[in-house]
Amino acid sequence: MIRETPEEAPYELIIEAGRSSKEYWRDLWRYRELFYFLSWRDILVRYKQTVIGIGWALIRPLLTMIVFTIVFGSIAKLPSEGIPYPIWVFSGLLPWQLFSTSLSECSNSLINNSNLLSKVYFPRLIVPASAVVVCFIDFLIAIAIFLGLMIFYNFIPSWKIIFLPPLTALTCFASLGAGLWLAALNVKYRDFRYVVPFIVQLGLYISPIGFSSNVVPEQWRLLYSINPIVGVIDGFRWAITGSEANIYLPGFALSLLFSSIVTYTGLLYFRAVEKTLADFI
C-alpha cells in the first residue's frame, strides 16, 4: 500500500469562521504565478505593436523636463540650490512619474480586467499590485535619461544616493495605497475615471517638481507636506544632491505618516469591498 507524503497530499480547503482572512494572505503567495503573468502581460501590451515602443517611457519625462526647465528655470528663474536645473527637475520628476502612472494604472486595473474578475477566484489585490510593477519598469527606463544628464553636466551624486531604493519603495507603496482606494471606488462609481486624470494633473503643479519646496512660506510648509509625494520628492533630491537644504524633516515625517495612513486605510477598504467587486463589474 502506497501512502501519500504531506507534500504529495492534495490541497485541502477548510471553510470555518474567521479563517478566510488568514487564508487570503496565504493565497497571495499561492497565486504568485498569476501575479507574474499579469505583470508580464501588461508590459507586453504596453510596448507591443507601437511605433516608438519603449521610447514612450523616455520621451514623456524628457519633454516634461524641458518644459519645466524653460518655464521655472529660464523664465521664472527659481532657485535650484546650485544644481543644474535639468538635473534638479528630473530628480523630482522621477518619483512623480512613478507615483502618478502607478496611481492611474491602479485606478483602472480592475475595470480593465473585469472579465477575469467575474469568472475565477483569486486575491483581487494582485491586479492593482501588478499594475505598479509595469510602472516601475517605466521608472527604470527613465533612470537612463537621468544617468545621461549626470554625465552631460559632469554631476556626481552624493553618497546619500544609497537611500534611493527605500524612497522608491515608499513611492510604490504610497501609490498602491491611493490606487486601492480609487480602484475600488472606480468599480462602484464609474465617474471616478474622470476624477483621476484631474487629480494627476493638479498634483503635477502643486508638487515641488519644477521648483524647490523651500519657496513655500515657512508657515505653510508643514501643511503643504500633507501631499504625500512632497516628502518623497524632497527625499529624492536630498539623496541625489546631498544638500540638507533640500529636505524638511518635519514635512518629510508628515508625508511618511500620511502615506502610511493612506496605504493602510486603502488596503482595509479594498479588502472590505473585494467580495462585492464582481457584482458591480
What does this structure look like?
By secondary structure, the protein is mainly alpha-helical. The chain has one domain. It is 70% helix and 0% strand. It contains twelve helices and no strands. α4 runs antiparallel to α8. It is globular. 37% of the residues are buried.
| Record field, number of beta strands | 0
Which residue ranges are poorly predicted, with pLDDT under 50 across at least 5 consecutive positions? 1-6, 15-19
What's the domain count? 1
One letter per element, helices H and strands E, the order comes to HHHHHHHHHHHH
Largest sheet: none
Taking all Cα atoms into account, the compactness measure Rg is 21 Å
Euclidean distance between termini CA atoms: 50 Å
Average pLDDT level: 82
Basic shape = globular
The gist of it:
The chain has 281 residues and is mostly helical. The protein has helices at 20-30, 32-47, 56-75, 85-112, 114-117, 126-152, 164-188, 192-206, 218-224, 228-241, 249-273, 277-280.
Q: Secondary-structure map with pairings?
A:
Layout: H1 20-30, H2 32-47, H3 56-75, H4 85-112, H5 114-117, H6 126-152, H7 164-188, H8 192-206, H9 218-224, H10 228-241, H11 249-273, H12 277-280
Helix pairs in contact: 2-6, 3-4, 3-6, 4-6, 4-7, 4-8, 4-10, 6-7, 7-10, 7-11, 10-11
Provide keyphrases for this structure:
globular, single chain, disordered N terminus, 70% helix, mainly alpha, 281 residues
